[in-house]
Amino acid sequence: MSPWIFFRNALALGALMTLLAPLRGEGGVSVSVMLQWVPQAQFAGFYVAQDRGFYARRGLDVRLVHGGPHRDSARALETGEVDFSTLFLATALVQRDRGVPLVNVAQLVQRSSLVLVGREDREVRSPRDLAGRRVSLWGDAFEAPYRAFFDILAISVDAVSQHRSVNLFLRGGVDACCAMYYNEYHAIWQAGLDEDQIEPFFLRDWGLDFPEDGLYTLASTATRSPDLARNIAEGTLEGWRFAQASPDVALDLVMRRAEDAGIPANRPHMAWMLTHILPAIFPDDGGSDSPGKLSREAYLRTARILERHGIIRHIDPFESFTLDGVSRVP
Q1: Total tally of structural domains belonging to the chain
Q2: Is the predicted pLDDT of residue 107 greater than 90, yes or no?
Q3: Biggest CA pair distance of the chain
Q4: Does 188 lie in the same domain as 81?
Q5: Per residue in 107-126, is it b (16+ CB within 10 Å) or e — as a string?
Q6: Would 34 disulfide with which of 26, 73, 132, 219, CB 3.0-4.6 Å?
Q7: Same domain, 317 and 245
Q8: 185 and 137 share a domain?
Q9: Would 2 be classed as within a structural domain?
């Protein structure tokens, strides 16, 4: 080999290594994951997986970042700001319908905890009492199930924006607010409104028991790096199993994350959240849902309801929506 050819090949190899270097950190392959809300027990399994080395054991150097009312995790994934994001299934279906090629890597939360909470002193005692009332709702990323709910009831509401807290509801600025049973519902109770002063309406009681938090990536990542996606999913599930077995350790990590982010949090509320989200991740009700897996039945049921109510226009094949299906495509 001539010296010139050797020098040219060495330069090419050096350039290639420079390009690949950012993909691997000291602890393994660098991966970013956006969790769709602020630090709280809803994401305990991720914190555990990072802290206890469940990701590192799989050759991953995972960076966890948080979304929130003003930071859309679906948008961050679409633009390439992050490699993976958590999203509700309904949100992911809406994004697919808009042309964003999302793929479900793991279905973490198998059951719905969405609820609308009405004020008894405003005579909101049934869902139809919400007609024409002021109701605070989260934005675009979380609205699909509520749109279907109002369509089933054939009512419209005076919707106002709800951000990170339920203060507007607590101060009487709205007649009802949206909530997660494991989060805002308990926060309302902690703030001093007793159960006989509020009326919860669970969306699952109206046929809208949609799976919620799932882990998603773009189809390009799923097809290019299926093992990476599986390792993220497996490490996260191991974190959730640890949180289920050792909730006090998991809560310590949750409180530390909230404190580091400057997010007000109290341990009893985080304990309530963890206690009530775990059964939705590991259901023990005789159903067909396996931890971490999105079932075809749940996918089609959710998609058909959204299509029926005009929230999405078409339903993609189940195989094109899941990691197992996409990674089998030649």
Answers
A1: 2
A2: yes
A3: 88
A4: no
A5: bbbbbbbbbbbbbeebebee
A6: 73
A7: yes
A8: yes
A9: no
Structure tokens at 77: 């994934």
Q: Is residue 6 part of a domain?
A: no
Amino acid sitting at position 250? A
Specify if 253 maps to a domain. Answer: yes
Transcribe 64-105 into DSSP letters.
EEE-BTTB-HHHHHHTTS-SEEEEEHHHHHHHHHTT--EEEE
Containing structural domain, residue 84: 26-110+211-327
- 195 and 219, same domain (yes or no): no
Bridging pattern class, strands 84-88 and 28-35: parallel
Could you give the C-alpha distances from 326 to 106, 227, 298, 316, in angstroms and in order? 13, 12, 18, 12
Q: What is the pLDDT of residues 117-144, one digit of tens each?
A: 999 999 999 999 999 999 999 877 788 9
Strand duo 24-25 + 198-202: pairing? unpaired
Q: What is the DSSP letter of 285?
A: S
158: alpha, beta or left? (left if phi > 0; alpha if psi -120 to 50): beta
> Which of the listed residues 161, 186, 206 is the one where a domain comes to its end?
206
Same domain flag for 275 and 164: no
Give the HSE-up count for residue 130: Cα atoms under 13 Å, Cβ half-sphere: 29
Q: Is the pLDDT of residue 288 over 60?
A: no
Choose between 142 and 231: higher pLDDT.
Answer: 231
Q: Are residues 288 and 150 in the same domain?
A: no
In this prediction, residue 78 carries a pLDDT of 95
For residue 89, the tally of other CB atoms under 10 A from its CB is 27
What's this model's pTM, rounded to 2 decimal places? 0.88
Q: What is the pLDDT of residues 11-70, one digit of tens each?
A: 343 433 333 333 444 558 999 999 999 999 999 999 999 999 999 999 999 999 999 877
